[in-house]
Amino acid sequence: MGSSWIEIDGRRLQENVRLFRKLVGDESNLMAVVKANAYGHGAGVVAPLLTPEVDWFGVDSLEEAEELSSIGIAKPILILGHTEPADAPRVVEGGFRQVLFRRDVAEALSTAAKMRNTSARVHLKVETGLNRLGVEPRDAGKLVAGLDGLTVEGIYTHFADVEDPESTLYQRQIERLREALSPFEGPLLVHAVPTAGALLHPEESLGIARVGIGLYGIWPSPSTRRAAEGKGSLLPVLSWKSRLAQVKRVPAGGSVGYDVTYRAPSERRIGVVPAGYADGFDRRLSSRGQVLVRGKSAPVVGRVAMNMFMVDVTDAGAREGDEVVLIGEQGALSITAEEIAEASGTIAYEVLARLSPRVPRRLR
């Protein structure tokens, strides 16, 4: 099983999906965003479970789209990130949808599609206030003007601060998005809403709701959680576990770990967990984090190393081989990605996305 492993609760995943389906309604398509290895959960594990429940998949890169295709995902896949013009033939051959915000990429897709006697389906990314990828609304039509072999299937934008329940910027962003529609005829999939939008403003889901972090049972922000209270519960899907590789006695005054940052205040029983920052257990958790052993909390002591870290198991009465929970539940206690994020000065998105792909994922 390896030094540590990740368990995915398929039942909870599907319950989260059904909550979002209920929120956005039948008139909106539901896109499961599985970029960054499904936010660290393992795209190859979760995508097959999501397939019966969702209408679309969203990824960041061509490589991620090809990974989904290789495991038999047949639902439409939208590449939300940048693809180089030289890779346009692979986009067309794979039948993937590509976002557009550069004319040279549009031209490359057009050429690749015409060479294959087909059409490349694209979604135009409109800049409305986030100032990342995208074109101004007035320039959306220019992206594809005069190019054969392209089918403009959708137009979309991304909200800047929809996680703030008090903000109304999203309304102005939707207005700007609508300005980009005028050059186009026929039905288009118009989309803007991410997880927080689906929770707080489901009426704005339009053609597609793009749901990422919420599918995995994580709230986008504490303020989103408070504002969405009563709409349903999000159930964390991921657990990360290991086993104590060794337990030893350290005398009073004995140091633990690199740089002698921790000295035992009294004789302690110290357990070694065979996982470290190479696996995604952040070094900032040194002498700050917690794990669960035998249903009790055990503090991290000393520096987190590349492949291991140490915990004080004096009060847990732990033995070598005991299960250690890094993220998840054990007995009546739990450790959440949000709690780890707070302890390490970041957000839950990063905690999960940085879980190493080398840590095996399996269904629970």
What does this structure look like?
The chain is α/β, with parallel strands linked by helices and 364 residues long. It has two domains: 10-227, TIM Barrel (Alpha-Beta Barrel), CATH 3.20.20.10; 238-363, Lyase, Ornithine Decarboxylase, Chain A, domain 1 (Beta Barrel). It has helices at residues 10-24, 35-39, 43-50, 62-70, 88-94, 103-115, 140-144, 169-179, 195-200, 222-227, 337-344, 348-353; strands at 4-8, 29-33, 56-59, 77-79, 97-100, 120-125, 150-156, 189-193, 208-211, 238-243, 246-250, 268-273, 290-293, 296-301, 309-312, 323-330, 333-335, 361-363. Strands 1, 10, 11, 12, 13, 14, 15, 16, 17 and 18 form a ten-stranded mixed β-sheet that branches. It has an eight-stranded parallel β-barrel with strand order 2-3-4-5-6-7-8-9. Helix 7 (140-144) links the parallel strand 6 (120-125) and strand 7. Helix 5 packs across helix 6 (103-115). The protein is elongated, with a radius of gyration of 23 Å. The two termini are 14 Å apart. The mean pLDDT is 97.
Characterize this entry briefly.
With about 375 residues, the protein is an alpha/beta fold. The chain has helices at about 10-25, 35-40, 45-50, 60-70, 90-95, 105-115, 140-145, 170-180, 195-200, 220-225, 335-345, 350-355, and strands at about 5-10, 30-35, 55-60, 75-80, 95-100, 120-125, 150-155, 190-195, 210, 240-245, 245-250, 270-275, 290-295, 295-300, 310, 325-330, 335, 360-364. The chain contains 12 helices and 18 strands.
Using brief descriptors, characterize the structure shown.
single chain, 364 residues, alpha/beta, TIM Barrel, Lyase, Ornithine Decarboxylase, Chain A, domain 1, 2 domains, 18 strands, 27% helix
